[in-house]
Design brief:
Shape: globular
Largest sheet: 7 strands, parallel
Number of helices: 8
Order of helices and strands: EHEHEHEHEHEHHHE
Strand content: 5-15%
Helix content: 40-55%
Length: 272
């Protein structure tokens, strides 16, 4: 017998790391519209509170969690705070990440990148996904249900100038996604799923300076990106939300270990 699929997230509890950033904030807002309660996790109390106020003003339920994704003790305290308030954790979105000053090779060879900068960008993007997954995923293991969604990147799939550490970290996120999906399903059953979305090019606070000139025109890097994007434009933050909601919902109940590109065709275009 065939049954209908459900995209409903009513009553679910979602933790969004980097939850007040451009992409993380939009993801949280989208999940709230779908019925989930949103725990906005980040280091800046003022920014987290502002995003919570936005979600509440739109009729959603939200709370702020002040923690660093690289601080296991802080993450465990945040996890316990969510459980005291709402009793469960159904969804984890690992949206914290980004480039790190000094780690790019736009104006220097890779040999001149300080190891400290390389380690910093690797930690933020890879360890900053692994640690929350282990801390919040432990709750899901005990519940025998839950969804983890990691944020990958086109840089994990194709070699890109300027971002060696970021690219390596995101490739690690892809592998970690597949490994966790396999391991959690083996150990705890089919109620826990781990997937990732790989955004194409979206203009965010962190990358705006390399994509947009001060006068609002496109940089040379932007022009190269758009030439490789069949849709010939950058993505809008809300265009991640449909894939995220699908992966979080029962409509994707047999989907685990997948990395879904949301990229306007960037990943499939040969340039010819």
């Amino acid at each position: 017998m065939t049954t209908g699929v459900s995209f409903d997230l009513q009553g679910k509890v979602a933790v969004v790391t980097g939850g007040y950033g451009i992409l993380g904030g939009s993801i949280g807002e989208g999940l709230a519209i779908a019925g989930a309660r949103i725990a906005v996790l980040g280091r800046n109390r003022e920014h987290a509170a502002a995003k919570v106020d936005e979600i509440k003003a739109s009729g959603g339920g939200a709370m702020a969690l002040i923690a660093d994704v690289l601080d296991e003790t802080g993450l465990r305290a945040a996890r316990d705070e969510v459980l005291r308030a709402w009793g469960s954790i159904d969804i984890l979105i690992n949206a914290a990440g980004g480039s790190v000053p000094g780690s790019r090779t736009d104006t220097k060879p890779v040999f001149e990148v300080p190891y400290a900068s390389f380690d910093q960008v690797l930690a933020l993007n890879l360890h900053g996904t692994v640690k929350p997954s282990l801390v919040f995923g432990e709750v899901m293991a005990n519940q025998k249900r839950g969804v983890i969604i990691n944020i990958s990147s086109m840089a994990a799939l194709r070699a890109m100038t300027g971002v060696p550490g970021y690219s390596i970290a995101k490739a690690g996120v892809d592998n970690f996604t597949r490994w966790m999906a396999m391991d959690l399903a083996h150990r705890y059953g089919d109620g826990i799923r781990v997937n990732a979305v790989a955004p194409g090019f979206f203009v965010t606070t962190q990358n705006k300076s390399v994509l947009i000139n001060p006068d609002g025109s496109y940089t040379e890097r932007s022009k190269k990106v758009l030439a490789q994007t069949p849709m010939k434009r950058f993505g809008r933050p809300d265009e991640l939300n449909g894939a995220i909601q699908w992966l979080c919902s029962d409509a994707a109940s047999f989907v685990t270990g997948a990395v879904i590109p949301v990229d306007g065709g960037f990943s499939i275009y040969s340039g010819v």
